[in-house]
Amino acid sequence: MERERLAELLRAVQRGECPVEEALDRLRSMPYEDLGFAKLDHHRALRNGFPEVVLGEGKSPEQVVAIAERMAAAGSNVLVTRLAADVGAELVARLPGFEYYATPRLAVRRARAIEPGGRGTVLVVSAGTADVPVAEEAAVSAEIMGNPVERLYDVGVAGLHRLLERRERLWSAAVLIVVAGMEGALPSVVGGLVDRPVIAVPTSVGYGTSMRGLAALLGMLNTCAAGVVVVNIDNGFGAASAASRINRRE
User: Fold this and answer.
1) For residues 209 and 214, what is the distance between their CA atoms, to the nearest angstrom?
2) What 3-state class would DSSP assign to 143?
3) CA dihedral (229, 235, 238, 243) positive or negative
4) Is 147 within 8 Å of 244 (Cβ atoms)?
């Protein structure tokens, strides 16, 4: 249950439009709903500002569908990450209202129109086309969390002029998520150009000594650009969550 929906319910009780017993029935899953194999935290949005997100990876199709169904029944927007294409297709077929995004491997259900509520734009920047799946995980996640989102892709340091000619877009963003594999240099460059928070996302893209993203991770952690923070390898969702908290209006 999200903060706004709980406030609406309490106001309805106060006005006498909703009986107390009905309100109690709607709150019966507090603080979580036990499915046996999963305990769904329906009140996470009250604490963290966004409903619980489902990690599709490692779960059976039946488990993913069951969890998504119960979250949808609670009236929440639903986001499922790291979802294989076949499981995504099954989810969309079995539960109305879900959309599957193949590139970032995300499934989304929008219970209602999402009004952008951030203080400014979250700009997602990718070094190369191969980094786009992680960048799109960040972008779609940030959008469903209520942020205005823009994208600036394939502007890595191998062709730095592609980035520099769009520096006005960098300067106009409230928060920047910068996604890069290989040596992971792009967040340092962007961090040296802007006075806004930069969230660096290393990807597992690269040849042998990239060590599946470890080289990019270490490079980003050792950046000389002030104001750059780093999330884990391929963690576009984590970057979006951090950006949303930074961008949130109080």
Assistant:
1) 9
2) helix
3) positive
4) yes
Q: What region does 182 belong to: left with phi over 0, alpha with psi -120 to 50, or beta? A: left
pTM of the shown model: 0.84
Which position has the token pair 């199709």?
61
Nearest to 43 by CA among 55, 57, 28: 28
- Which tops the pLDDT comparison, 110 or 188? 188
Name the strands in the sheet holding 106-109, side by side, starting at the edge strand that comes first in the sequence: 54-55, 78-81, 106-109, 98-101
Instruction: Give dist(CA 84, CA 236) in Å, integer.
Output: 16
Using DSSP bridges, classify how beta strands 54-55 and 78-81 pair: parallel, antiparallel or unpaired. Answer: parallel
Question: Using DSSP, how many helices (H) and how many strands (E) does the chain show?
Answer: 11, 11
3-state DSSP assignment of residue 202: strand
CB–CB of 23/51 below 8 Å? no
Q: Token pair of 92, please? A: 């969309």
Torsional class of 98: left (φ above 0), alpha (ψ -120 to 50), beta (otherwise): beta
Give per-residue pLDDT as tens, 94-135. Answer: 998 899 999 999 999 987 767 777 789 999 999 999 999 999
The SS3 of residue 83 is coil
Q: How many whole angstroms separate alpha carbon 182 and alpha carbon 214?
A: 9
The dihedral through the CA atoms of 17, 40, 77, 197 has a sign that is positive
From the candidate CATH numbers 1.10.10.10, 3.60.20.10, 3.40.50.920, 3.40.50.1970, the one assigned to the domain spanning 122-247: 3.40.50.1970
